[in-house]
Write a structure and sequence with these properties.
heterodimer, A: 281 residues, alpha/beta, 2 domains, 4-stranded mixed sheet, globular, B: 184 residues, fumarase, 5-stranded mixed beta barrel, 6 helices, 7 strands, binds iron/sulfur cluster
């Protein structure tokens, strides 16, 4: 049994929040470069160039890539041989968020009540925290700071097995078509298949954690991802929806077992400000 | 992009007449920020026959909720937010004299019709290019609705703020035309 004091988690979470908002992953940069080369629209090419300029400036000026620094979503892998001491684990994560969003000059985008009051909580808490228990004596904390514009273009649909994989592909492509320029394309399309109503959405979000330069480990799913990516980029939406070939730079799918009567499909749209960072304690 | 045009606010009919979809514009002067919550309050004021917190005639509203400024900086990162959430309010502000809007993503038919009627334009800024946008903002001050935090109305002094004309006064829509051109 390894003891971890939750107070030691606070500065780690704080750093994750600040770093994720400023430093974009190499996988995103690589993919954007690859697509910029193939891009046919001059406006689109220029938009991608401005995105690169933004990534450079954010590091130089230590300013967040996007003013929407997101809701702080955490995926925690908690080793079963860890004993958390020194206080409430969830409170510690939220304290890290509070400090990170304050000291990093990040925008506070959470309201306390979804519709009636809608009062800003002024410190970007509460964070959304998902917990998995895993073997071992480590804690892995992954932050995905998710912007509202792309999140709003996401959807869950309870489909039928009879719709087939073609039906699934059509739904995902149509979801991107209906999103148009709203989620700040170039985007990454996260797809969750199976599980249940609620789990499909979580799978879609988790699928986005796979680095963009890693193929789906299962060749038959890798093929589906490629097919969706091609169809999505044939829509012509392009960067910012102003026309072009670069609508999405990757499609990531995660699937799970499901009930004989069900076929849930979830699409989680992620913008090019793809912020995810991990730390292992 | 077809050409680069320098715009100074407030805008006049002669300024917007020149603008065509796909043109790159660089805006200099004073502009105002507002998102959903501030739009609702502005429209409530108009409907109650009251004065707005700023003179809207010929002005541009930038749909943005900036990140906080670091000490010594006028503003934090400040890219556009999604415009369709402002669609229910924009025609009322356009009728009141608003000449331009900056945001991201397409507008609905009511807004496009209202832009034709009121000779106004919609300018697309690049979503997520928020540090680039902030470089053109030289001064910022909250002029109304401080309680809304990032959603308060700010007066911004901008120099060469880069945008692309997405809807001109002739009813043309780059979101529609651009996508049709590259669709396979
Ligand atoms: S969708 Fe992404 S890039 Fe666009 S405003 Fe939101 S966080 Fe920023």
């Amino acid at each position: 049994m390894r003891e971890i004091d939750v107070k030691d988690i606070i500065p780690i979470v704080k750093k994750l929040c600040i770093d994720a908002s400023i430093y974009i992953g190499d996988d995103v940069v690589e993919k954007l470069k690859e697509f910029q080369k193939k891009e046919e629209s001059p406006i689109a090419k220029e938009i991608i160039a401005i995105i690169f300029e933004n990534q450079r400036l954010s590091v130089e000026k230590q300013m967040p890539l996007c003013q929407d620094t997101g809701v702080a979503v955490f995926f925690i892998e908690l080793g079963q041989d860890v004993h958390l001491v020194g206080g409430d684990f969830y409170k510690a994560i939220n304290e890290g968020v509070r400090q990170g969003y304050k000291e990093g000059y990040l925008r506070k985008s959470m309201v306390d009540d979804p519709i009636i009051e809608r009062k800003n909580t002024k410190d970007n808490t509460p964070a959304l925290i998902y917990l998995d228990i895993v073997p071992g004596d480590k804690v892995k904390i992954t932050l995905a700071a998710k912007g509202g514009g792309s999140e709003n273009m996401s959807e869950v649909k309870m489909m039928k097995a009879a719709d087939g994989i073609e039906g699934v592909i059509d739904f995902v492509v149509d979801r991107v078509r209906r999103s148009g320029g709203n989620p700040c394309p170039p985007i990454i399309v996260g797809v969750g298949l199976g599980g249940n109503f609620e789990q499909s959405a979580l799978l879609a979000k988790k699928s986005l954690l796979r680095p963009l330069n890693e193929k789906n480990p299962d060749p038959k799913w890798a093929k589906v991802e490629e097919e969706i990516l091609e169809k999505v980029n044939n829509l012509g939406i392009g960067p910012q929806g102003l026309g072009g070939r670069t609508t999405a730079i990757a499609v990531n799918i995660l699937h799970k077992a499901c009930h004989i009567a069900c076929m849930p499909v979830a699409v989680n749209i992620q913008c090019h400000v793809h912020r995810h960072k991990s730390a292992v304690i | 992009m077809s050409k680069e045009i320098h715009l100074r606010t407030p805008l006049k009919d002669d300024d917007v007449k020149e603008l065509k979809i796909g043109d790159k514009v660089l805006i200099t002067g004073i502009i105002y920020t507002a998102r959903d919550a501030a739009h609702k309050r502005l429209v409530d004021l108009i409907e109650a026959g009251k004065d707005l917190p700023f003179d809207i005639k010929g002005q541009i509203i930038y749909f943005v909720g900036p990140a906080p400024a670091r000490p010594g900086m006028p503003i934090g990162s400040a890219g556009p937010t999604t415009s369709y959430r402002m669609d229910p309010y924009s025609p009322i502000l356009l009728d009141a004299g608003l000449k331009g809007m900056i945001g991201k993503g397409p507008r609905n038919k009511e807004v496009i019709d209202s832009m034709i009627k009121n000779k106004a334009v919609y300018l697309a800024a690049i979503g997520g290019a928020a540090v680039v946008m902030a470089q053109s903002i030289k001064a910022a001050k909250v002029i109304a609705y401080e309680d809304l935090g990032p959603e308060a109305i700010r007066e911004l002094k901008v120099e060469n703020l880069p945008c692309i004309v997405a809807n001109d006064i002739y009813g043309k829509d780059l979101f529609d035309e651009g996508v049709r051109k590259y669709k396979k």
